[in-house]
Structures are given as structure tokens and as C-alpha cells.
TrEMBL record:
Keywords: Signal
Protein name: PEGA domain-containing protein
KW Acyltransferase (keyword) present: no
Signal peptide extent: 1-28
UniProt KW Signal keyword: yes
């Protein structure tokens, strides 16, 4: 079996895991209690009361849509609520909605945010659910660490801009074939393509060269080969 075939079969494994998570989401009770508006908890510091109230109204609307299994609308309400108040319970319920929308990267992101202040804003049971889900997702997703030091180079992942160098990008991505490219005027583009398997961690350092640099390198390589062959053939 080739690496690409293995990636495909494990990609199907991710789909199965997401289906299990989606089914488990119905058992992982959403947070329905009010969002302690006006409290002095760490996640409420610096958030005006009217912003907290606006977030809570949208949070309750999202809960209604989640209860009705209208997941797109539920996620939309939760995202709007987060613009008013970055509350762990909103992140948690948003993750429950996203589990049903095949968005594992976003699920991981929001569960991680939900756990940012420990069990208190969720309760111990939901906190453990979040921890377990994320641990499982991390085994089914791939991790990339992309770095480029060439000043002004643009780095993309599957055609989407990541950063302008010098810079670094570290994140979870879906397993499968990915294309990471760095390009800059006056330099030949550098592309790295490889299948990433579930649980795999890949470190990619992208370097760019001018056409003259590549030509000089090839000339040195061509001149070196005969001497190498001759040296190997000497008894």
C-alpha cells in the first residue's frame, strides 16, 4: 500500500472518528445555564455588562438551534456571541455544533479555548469531555511546523496564504496530500508536496534560490560526479 493510499484510508478513519464525536456530542450535555453575567470570574474581567448580556442572549438562541439540531444556525449564533464575550461555555457549545459540520480543526480550536480557564466555567464532566475529544482529534489530524527565513517571501498552504517571511506557522491540519509553497520576485518558487498521515508531525523549512544560484549549484554538481565515480572505481 502506498503512502497516499494509507493517507486515504486514514482519512476515512478521521471521518469515522468525527461521526463518533458527533454521536457523542448528543450525550455531552451542552451548557444551558446562564453565563454568570456581572460576575467577577477571570473570563469576565474587562467585559462590560451590556456586552455580557448581548452575548448571553445570542448564547441562548444558539442553544435553541442546537437543541433543534440546526447546527449551522447554532454555530452562527455562538460565533456572534463570542464577538461580545470570549466565554468558555460559548466555545464549548460552538464545538458541539461544529462536530456535526465536519470541521475538526475548528472543533479542536474551540474545545481548547473552552478549557482555557480550567473546569470551573464548564464543570468537571464537560471539561473531561473536551479534553478527551481533543486528545482523540490530535491522533487523527496531522501537525505542521512551517518556517521560512527569506525576507519578503510569501508562504502558502494549498493555495492559501500563511505568512510573509520571515515567519513560522504551526497548526493542526487534515491528513492527506498538501502543497506548501514559498515564492518571491527574483527567486525560483520552492514547493514541498507530501502526504501527511494522522498523528504525523512534519517540520518544513523552505529556502529560496535565484536562478543563477541554481545554475552554479548544478555546474558544481556536474563537475563533481566524474571524480566521485572515478574515486569509487579505484582499487
Amino acid at each position: 500500500m502506498t503512502a497516499i493510499q494509507r493517507g486515504g484510508s486514514r482519512g476515512r478513519g478521521l471521518a469515522v472518528v468525527l461521526m463518533c464525536l458527533s454521536a457523542s456530542a448528543s450525550m455531552a450535555q451542552r451548557v444551558d445555564k446562564p453565563l454568570d453575567v456581572g460576575g467577577d470570574r477571570p473570563w469576565a474581567l474587562g467585559v462590560p455588562r451590556d456586552e455580557q448580556q448581548a452575548a448571553q442572549a445570542l448564547f441562548f438562541e444558539g442553544n435553541e438551534r442546537l437543541r433543534e439540531s440546526v447546527f449551522v444556525e447554532a454555530s452562527r449564533n455562538y460565533r456572534r456571541a463570542l464577538r461580545h464575550w470570549n466565554h468558555p461555555a460559548i466555545h464549548y457549545n460552538l464545538a458541539l455544533a461544529l462536530m456535526n459540520l465536519d470541521q475538526p480543526i475548528e472543533v479542536h480550536k474551540h474545545l481548547k479555548a473552552a478549557m482555557g480557564h480550567g473546569p470551573e466555567p464548564l464543570d468537571a464532566g464537560r471539561y473531561e469531555h473536551a479534553r478527551s475529544y481533543n486528545a482523540l482529534l490530535e491522533k487523527q489530524l496531522a501537525w505542521v511546523d512551517v518556517r521560512c527565513d527569506q525576507e519578503g517571501a510569501v508562504v502558502t498552504l494549498n493555495g492559501q496564504a500563511l505568512f510573509t517571511a520571515p515567519g513560522r506557522y504551526q497548526a493542526l491540519i487534515r491528513p492527506g496530500m498538501h502543497s506548501i509553497v514559498a515564492f518571491k520576485d527574483g527567486y525560483l518558487p520552492t514547493e514541498k508536496r507530501q502526504p501527511l498521515l494522522p498523528g504525523e508531525k512534519a517540520e518544513l523549512h523552505l529556502e529560496l534560490f535565484t536562478e543563477d544560484e541554481v545554475i552554479r549549484y548544478r555546474r558544481r554538481w556536474s563537475a563533481w560526479i566524474p571524480w566521485t565515480v572515478l574515486g569509487v572505481g579505484v582499487v
